[in-house]
Amino acid sequence: MKNLKNGLFYIIVTGGFTALIFWIVSKGKLLESSDVVAPVSNSNYFNQFLDSLTHNLKHPLAILLLQIITIIIVARLFGWIFRKIGQPSVIGEIIAGIFLGPSLVGMYFPEYSAMLFPTESLGNLQFLSQIGLILFMFVVGMELDLKVLKNKANDAVVISHASIVFPFALGIGLAYFVYNEFAPEGVEFLSFSLFMGIAMSITAFPVLARIVQERGIHKTKLGAIVVTCAAADDITAWCILAAVIAIVKAGTFASSMYVILLAITYVLAMLFIVKPFLKKVGDLYATRDNLSKPVVAIFLLTLIISSYLSEIIGIHALFGAFLTGAIMPDITKIRNIIIEKVEDVALILLLPLFFVFTGLRTEIGLINDPYLWKITGFIILVAVVGKFLGSTLAAKFVGQNWRDSLTIGALMNTRGLMELVVLNIGYDLGVLSREIFTMMVIMALVTTFMTGPAIDLINYIFKRKEVLFPKEIGNSNFKILISFGNNEKGKSLLHLANSFVKKQKENTNVTALHLSLSDEMHAYNLEEYEQEAFAPILAESKTLDQEITTIFKATVDIETDITDIATRGNFDLVLVGLGKSIFEGTLLGKVLGFTTRIINPDRLIDKFTGKEGLFENSPFDDRTRLIISKSKMPLGILIDKELNVVNDVFVPIFSANDSFLIDYAQKLIYNSDSKITVLDIDSQVKNNEDIELEIESLQKNYPENISVLTENNMKAGFLAKQDLMMISLESWKKLVDSQSVWLSTIPSVLIVKP
Predict the structure, then answer these.
(1) pLDDT tens-digit profile of 256-303?
(2) How far is it, in rounded angstroms, from Cα 210 to Cα 87?
(3) Do 629 and 611 meet the contact criterion of CB atoms below 8 Å apart?
(4) For an engineered disulfide with 44, which of 40, 518, 651, 669 has Cβ 3.0 to 4.6 Å away?
């Protein structure tokens, strides 16, 4: 009755008001004057639609949105490719910008390039990219740990300033030789030489910090020194850059003194007025789990006002953003929250726009004869000698050995995004010509790209590798590595590992490994990030009375590092959680309840695609399948359905190849007093003498802990009462391929590859 009443009301209201609207529009037609254009004929409706569509496609907002879509897709693709070959993803994103610019797409597909990047749209792209840079520099400023600078200032300042002064002097010397030929007309030598000097002396702190994390040396003395050097380098270089911009804009050094004095006043106000104010705000909200929108607004408004003032003063908005980040409250939780809020928008959405805008300015085709390439090579040589040699010699002078000194030099030679920022500022001020700008962009790419191979070469020459594993691991008879990303799944893996070694702790070792993609995490207070990641696992280990060793590492290739660490540590069993299942979101996925995830999964394969042989039609995601294919030691893949205890374990034997499962069953019986039920499928146990003898031996020693069933005498609901099913990888594949009825009631599953 109620539904009928609602339906009648709906029909009356919508129908009545529709009729009223039609009547008003009909009457309104009579109000039109005679000079109103007559409606188009039916034959012209489609043409009118096409004209409207063309007009919409050319609207500035539509063009900007299409540019953003294209840029993000291409930048992420190139970033992924370069991450896969062991390079920072920022190099791939820079090359993506050059790819979309006149050097490649513009050269071979000029019509498409003109449609996607019309000249009149570049202003919008530039301003949006500048917003991205402001947010990025804000994050860079927050990532600087000023406490570390205070504690390790002596050696770091010597190395850092040597790595600035030496290349700065060489850059000015280089400017002397290329000024007449490559400096824009009307630009004074002072302005040109200062920008060449600062471009040669910059170091990319964010890229360097991530390389240090990826190499696993962030906890070493070398890692601490080089990160501190880069931080000191960043602060010094940006102060020098602010002064250089002031001089260039003022025209002479004398007239720039007014700008510099105003800039000093601004910096002092930020340090002694704004910083204490922000600290008070931070202290009020330090204990809260999240920040309210008004508090976030205070911090972001401070950022915008600071950027505005530094732009008005004449030292560029980016300096204001950097300074605001540096004076943010020294409270880890607040910095982490702000960084997480800002970083994704800046790095994923807006920063790629800057790379492409730089790429549109970079026309490699301008370097079109051997002489220009010779000049480019000379610029690269001066850059490498200045930064690499200056840092190396300074590090050696303060007492570092040659290996560490050369490593510091290689890392400080990393320029990356920071170099592009400086070059774009110089280009916007008209100090750098298009040709010299292109040469310097190539130099930035080469010096960043060479960092990884240079460190590998140094390590090879000096034949020493950083020790990743604690010494006690080598004294154990049975070693288990659990690799986790999600804390809850990490606890389940720990419970499972503990079940295998509970009564043999003096002869066993359990190691917990946490890997994070380096471009998905920021460098600020990395140790606290690590502590936060391991805190729940360590707490659970105390509850279980299970000592564990922890390994933390930032990486660009999670699958390779898991298998590499497992191999180098000589582990007897590696336990990982299953990645995002290919069944998730399907009816079968709902039945299975696959909710587990592996470490930061960021990509999936198409359903039922995989490698040849065993992995064809593999019921695993891309990352899990890669770990399986690369693993050279026993591997256990846990499909976790809230595994807390391992009292009742079900072990199906599909073939003679499954005999190794009995060894693991024996460990569970001895260490956890588990009840093992072996399912003899197609009489595989009965027909295999070795398996039968192993089970009989266990039944003799542990008569209450092991039994054998056949499919015919397995009762309904039996699987639902089990805590864990332990199955071989080959048998699991058969089970999934056949879409067995077991899948509707299985408990947590441990898939074991021998």
Answers:
(1) 788 888 889 999 999 999 999 998 888 887 776 677 888 889 999 999
(2) 11
(3) yes
(4) 40
H-type alpha helices, 482-546 = 487-501, 526-544
Task: Provide mean pLDDT across the span 12-17.
Answer: 87
Distance CA 88, CA 100 (A): 20
Which of 396-400, 444-448, 633-637, 696-700 holds the top average pLDDT? 444-448
- Residues with Cβ within 8 Å of residue 229, at least 6 apart in sequence: 156, 159, 160, 163, 391, 408, 412
CB-based contacts of 735: which residues, under 8 Å, 6+ apart? Answer: 727, 742, 743
Cα radius of gyration rounded to whole Å, the chain: 32
Count other C-beta atoms under 10 Å from residue 384's C-beta: 20
28: exposed, middle or buried (Cβ count in 10 Å: 0-12, 13-18, 19+): exposed
Residue-level pLDDT at 260: 86
Closest to 651 measured CA to CA, from 746, 737, 575, 725: 725
Q: Does residue 592 have a pLDDT over 50?
A: no
pLDDT digits (tens, 9 = 90+) for 505-514: 778 888 988 8
The CA distance from 74 to 717, in Å, is: 51
Residue 33: both structure tokens together:
């004057």
The helix or strand, by DSSP H or E, that contains position 573, with its residue range, turns out to be strand 573-577
Please report, as a single letter, which amino acid is at residue 292.
Answer: S
Question: Hey, CA dihedral for 483, 488, 493, 498, is it positive or negative?
Answer: positive
Q: What is the pLDDT of residue 642?
A: 77
CB distance 190 to 204 below 8 Å:
no
The CA-based angle 448-453-454, given to 5 degrees, is 80
Q: What does the pLDDT look like over 492-549, one tens digit per residue? A: 888 888 888 888 877 888 898 888 766 544 555 566 667 777 888 888 888 888 888 8
- Classify the C-alpha dihedral 531-532-533-537 as positive or negative: positive
What's the CA gap between 506 and 717, in Å, rounded? 39
Judge whether 148 and 528 are in contact, CB under 8 Å.
no
CA distance linking residue 441 with residue 310, whole number of Å: 26
User: Global pTM?
Assistant: 0.67
According to DSSP, residue 330 is labeled: S
Specify the pLDDT at position 643.
81
Please tell me whether residue 751 adopts helix, strand or coil conformation.
strand
Give the separation between CA 35 and CA 20, rounded to whole angstroms.
27
pLDDT digits (tens, 9 = 90+) for 675-697: 888 888 877 777 777 787 888 88
